[in-house]
Amino acid sequence: MRIAVVGTGYVGLVTGSCFADMGNIVTCVDVDQKKIRDLKKGIVPLFEPGLEEIIKRNRNRRLFFTTDLSKAVQSSDLIFIAVNTPAGKNGEVDINNVKAVALGIAKSINRHKIIINKSTVPIGMGDIVTQILIKRGPKDLSFDVVSNPEFLREGSAVADLLRPERVVIGATNRSAAQKVAEIYKPLRCPILITDLKSAEMIKYASNAFLATKISFINEIANLCDKVGADILQVTKGMSYDSRIGSQFFNSGLGFGGSCFPKDVAALVAIGKTSGYPFRILPEVLRINQFQRTLFVEKVRQIVGPLRGKTLAVWGLSFKPNTDDLREAPSLSILPALMARGAKLRAYDPVSMGKAKALLKKVKFCKDPYETVQGAEAVLVLTDWNEFKQVDFQKLRSILKQPILIDGRNMYDPREMAEKGFAYHGMGRGETSNF
Asked: By CB atoms within 10 Å of each CB, which of 51, 133, 361, 434 scores lowest?
């Protein structure tokens, strides 16, 4: 198929590149001229495992990059809108980018097209795009609008697209939905075809549920710390129940990134404007923010007064295998520690370039060992695999005090005690002999 993908962020670039790798002719469009120049040279603007290899394999063969929306629209049969939809002041979604793309399509359309919303958009966005095309396009315009929400996790987005658990396609015209489904059929995955608004709701409901699961288990972890239970044993016991499962049961610093915080806030805003104020979801967001405050207080209680003390920070991105700092716990935890007088040394395998522009007065280091020079304690904020294989004997010899405060519960408390560390996790309670 001939496909245009408008937007070259995480979703657009991964989607377009993988579609090309599946044999389609894909043109990726963006207004950012520098980004497009770099992509034409094979320079990938974001860190995502496997993406650079796919772009290299398909660039200038089946995968092309341009700033010319009109040309891309006219030469394509299917047009995916995958632009950013940032959060507004009150949690509502800013849809101006989507509306601008819809207007550009309306001005350029030359024959029947299927326009697919891939961006995360409010329920009813398909109708808004339809109205823009009707009002601003040619009088004899022929088109279909489809919703195809993305379920890509940063750090595993390529695998998620090529091996999806399900594909959701919403449309008013079933034949248009089936045309979009043809793209995914080689992946041999479940394909659900719904109406437009149900497809849009599935995306929000899915992310809100997963965010709720994370905040719930963080509440249980906080209680574990109070009563002396171990959250890892608790979640293991819970996860054997097939009704509950084990995914998104990682207690710690809460969720971040470009999706969960924004999508939960957006669903809360949609509920308010629709006359149904949510009760659970606002609390999910409050618990998530509280986890960062709780961690800072934990550090203060363990280390003592922070003024003048040096702390080593391992990990800055909101999760491993990505350089994304959006809503990362580090962006609230580090400033809070510095406000209490702490001096910070930090290391992250891939996100320090971005972090330097956001976290001033932090000393960025070349590896985990340089980070702990002169430090009173190590704070783990991102569970990168690199941190699982450190030389703890060497680490202990460098640290001023062998204190490890683990915001991601990466390590076993008994093993850390045997290595001579004072270990503190999130909800680990008392170290047992089991």
From this structure: 434
